[in-house]
Amino acid sequence: MDDFYKKILDNNKQWVETSLASDPNYFQDLAKGQTPPLLWIGCSDSRVPANEIVGAKPGEVFVHRNIANMVVHSDMNMLSVLDYAVNVLKVKHVLVCGHYGCGGIKAAMGNDSIGIIDNWIRHIKDVYRLHSNYLDSIEDETERFNTFVEISVKEQVFNLAKTSIVQSAWKNGQELTLHGWAYGLNSGFVTDLEVNISSNNDLDEVYQLKF
Fold first, then answer.
1. What is the Cα 101 distance to its own chain's centre?
2. Which residues contribute to the annotated binding site for Zn(2+)?
3. Which positions in this protein are listed as binding Zn(2+) (predicted)?
4. Which residues does 190 contact at the CB level (< 8 Å), separation at least 6?
5. Residue 202 pLDDT grade (very low, low, confident, very high; cuts 50, 70, 90)
6. What percentage of the chain has pLDDT greater than the value 90?
7. What is the pLDDT of residues 150-172, one digit of tens each?
8. Alpha-helical runs (H) found in the chain
9. Annotated active-site positions, please?
10. What's the fold here for domain 34-207?
11. What are the boundaries of each domain within the chain?
């Protein structure tokens, strides 16, 4: 057994002991069920831990992660998570959180082949193509990169709003608000991109304001 693997097993034991020391019923209460108010759709990047960023405890955030936090209408994994979160857990907020310095976004800005991920990045390249005139007008490469991160998050929020799952929830009067954030790896702070959508009536108005 290598040192790293042994370390994570030991860390688990220490975490259990620490959790029980603060609350003897900690795990018994968790096992009874979950009622998280938030679904987090984030990037798979190991530097973006959903619960820690918002100071949430286990049971408070339902999480789906993929490369570059994409909302793709043919992604049955994402749709299954969204359906369960909205229709079973009855979350009140769905948050798409991207991050500055995202490798998937960066890769989509170039033409190098990486491997099978090239197929996933096609979706990100489509976002760039949609906003290419504006993005290409930004001369500073870092600023263009950061702006693309923000634009992609916003587009994913609108993709989310157009899913049949969210549309049905709004049609039935369910309380559900969508949000978009960008997380700063070098600061720990999030930027609220102010794409807060709570009904079909908000869609066109917010889109016009944000693009």
1. 15
2. 43, 45, 99, 102
3. 43, 45, 99, 102
4. 53, 97, 181, 182, 183, 184
5. confident
6. 90
7. 999 999 999 999 999 999 999 99
8. 3-22, 26-31, 50-54, 76-83, 103-108, 117-130, 132-136, 141-161, 164-171, 200-210
9. 43, 45, 47, 99, 102
10. Beta-carbonic Anhydrase; Chain A (3.40.1050)
11. 1-32, 34-207
